[in-house]
Structures are given as structure tokens and as C-alpha cells.
Write a structure and sequence with these properties.
There is one protein chain. This protein is of the alpha/beta class. The protein has a single domain, classed as Rossmann fold (3-Layer(aba) Sandwich), CATH 3.40.50.150. Helices cover 35% and strands 18% of the residues. The chain contains 8 helices and 7 strands, in the order H-H-H-E-H-E-H-E-H-E-H-E-H-E-E. Strands 3-2-1-4-5-7-6 form a 7-stranded mixed β-sheet, with helices on both faces. Strand 1, helix 4 and strand 2 form a beta-alpha-beta unit. The longest helix has 15 residues. Bound molecules: S-adenosylmethionine. S-adenosylmethionine binds next to helix 4 and strand 2. Keywords: Methyltransferase, S-adenosyl-L-methionine, Transferase. This is O-methyltransferase. It holds the Pfam family Methyltransf_3. It comes from Cellulomonas persica. GO terms for molecular function: O-methyltransferase activity; S-adenosylmethionine-dependent methyltransferase activity.
């Protein structure tokens, strides 16, 4: 039975970041442990149910509206909830977010962080940062809890301190971040303290990563980033099929 959202590929191919089964590079998995028992025709409705499990408050909805107006994009509710949980579980006092948008994911991260936690959030678009600051103010976030840095993230990240951060969120976007994904991974791992958490959003890239027939540049770059994280012995990863895919990894 196909396990991917698109339903277009061979059985089991979704287990290996989209490599065809014949490529022989699938991660070792036992047939006995194959997920057929939990993958059913109802999977899509379960995903929708999970996305709608928690209602969003007015401040998040307003930030989402700003994102729609500016065409900035925003994490769906299930991803947002997962970000809050990860930030809380890691007791994340220091967080770096790459790609602020209008602050939807930022609000979820801040919700999970302790009250004295500081979110450093980077975006290349000044207009997005202006909107994000409105989102933070409307949510009652004290200005000392956010540090917005406007600029291309690859120019900003090298200025941040080694091993000083509890969580790094990397939002993959085409037009810059995706194309330089290996450099972003290097920077993110450098910034994390041991025990810190790397989070990569869009790790399933619009349901294309799991489909080996999709070999466009962006999808290939996301797959390669997944392989790099999987192969990195400093990281303990899991790929969560929430939203557009959250690749999470603890820095050992
Ligand atoms: C999809 S939005 C982020 C949305 C955010 N994660 C949320 O859920 O609210 C992607 C953002 O990344 C920013 N961005 C794209 N390339 C960038 C780069 N190279 N450096 C910094 N920001 C970048 C865009 O301006 C945009 O605001």
C-alpha cells in the first residue's frame, strides 16, 4: 500500500526520502515493522483532524491574515502547535528563526518558550518584519523577548554565537534558503548547544519529496538536506509528517 500523500509512487518508496526502492539506498526497515497497519485510506482525514486539533487564538489569526495580505506564507496550525511543544520540551530560552514572515511561527515558538526566553528572528524583507512586529505587539509580547534582524540569513547567521541556542528553526523557501541548504545546515548545527533542537520546516516540500518521480531542483535539494541530516552523527533526527513536514533533530 502506498504511504505517500500523492499516492503516485511505488510501495514503500516514501520511506527513503523519495529514492526508488530499486536504488538500494532505503534506510533499513523491517517488513514486520512496515507501517501498512497504520496507513489507511483514512490517513488524509486523520491529517486534517490533527491540523484542526487545536483552535488558533485571535493574535495568531491576525498574523496569518497579515501573511495572506503580503503573500508571506505561514506554518499551518499543526506545525505551529508542534513548534510550541518542541520549544517547551527543550525549555528553549534562546531560539533562532530563519524566515520570520509575519510572525505566525514566531508566536507559536514564543508560546512554548519560558517567559524570559528571547527569539532571534531573521528575514530579508523589512515589510515582513514590520508586520511581524505588529503581530508581536497584538499578542502582548514584550519587545525584549524578540530580536528582529533584517537581512539575508546567510549574512546574519555567521555573526551569531557558537553553541548559544536551544532551538533553531529553518524555514525552507525557494529563492535563497533552499538553494544554499547545506550552508544553512552547517550554520544551524554550529549555533546549537548540545541537546539543542534543529527544526526544518517544509521537509516534505509540498508532498514532492516522497515521490521519486519528482526530480526538480527544489525537491532534490530538500531530499539532499534530509539525507545530510540523517547521515550527520552529531544529530538524532525524526521526520514528523505534520503540515508540510517537520524534520527535527537533537544536537548530541
Ligand atoms: C514562508 S515565510 C516564513 C513564514 C514563517 N515561518 C511563519 O510560519 O510565520 C518565508 C520567509 O522567509 C524570508 N526569506 C526568504 N529567503 C530569505 C533569506 N535568504 N534570508 C532571510 N529571509 C528570507 C521571506 O522574506 C519570508 O518572509
Amino acid at each position: 500500500m502506498c504511504t505517500c500523500a500523492s499516492g503516485e509512487h511505488d510501495e514503500g518508496a516514501g520511506l527513503g526520502w523519495g529514492e526508488p526502492v530499486t536504488a538500494g539506498v532505503r534506510p533499513r526497515t523491517s517488513r514486520a515493522a512496515a507501517p501498512e497497519a497504520i496507513i489507511s485510506a483514512d490517513k488524509a482525514s486523520s491529517w486534517v483532524y490533527a491540523e484542526e486539533f487545536l483552535a488558533e487564538d485571535d493574535a495568531v489569526l491576525a498574523a496569518r491574515e497579515r501573511a495572506a495580505q503580503l503573500g508571506a506564507g505561514a506554518v499551518p496550525p499543526g506545525t505551529g502547535a508542534a513548534l510550541s511543544v518542541l520549544a517547551a520540551a527543550a525549555n528553549a530560552r534562546t531560539v533562532v528563526e530563519i524566515g520570520t514572515g509575519t510572525g505566525v511561527a514566531s508566536l507559536y515558538l514564543l508560546r512554548g518558550m519560558p517567559a524570559d526566553g528571547v527569539l532571534t528572528t531573521i528575514d530579508a524583507e523589512v515589510e515582513h518584519h514590520r508586520a511581524a512586529k505588529e503581530s508581536f505587539a497584538e499578542a502582548g509580547i514584550r519587545s525584549t523577548r524578540t530580536r528582529t534582524i533584517s537581512g539575508r540569513a546567510l549574512d546574519v547567521l555567521p555573526r551569531l554565537t557558537d553553541a548559544a541556542y536551544d532551538l533553531v528553526l529553518l524555514g525552507l523557501t525557494s529563492g535563497g534558503v533552499l538553494e544554499a541548504a547545506p550552508e544553512y545546515l552547517t550554520q544551524a548545527v554550529r549555533l546549537l548547544r548540545p541537546g539543542g533542537v534543529l527544526v526544518v520546516d517544509h521537509a516534505l516540500w509540498h508532498d514532492r519529496v516522497a515521490d521519486p518521480a519528482r526530480r526538480d531542483e527544489a525537491t532534490t535539494a530538500v531530499r539532499e538536506l534530509g539525507r545530510a541530516v540523517r547521515a550527520d552523527e552529531r544529530l538524532l533526527p525524526a521526520l514528523l509528517p505534520v503540515g508540510d513536514g517537520l524534520l527535527v533533530a537533537v544536537r548530541r
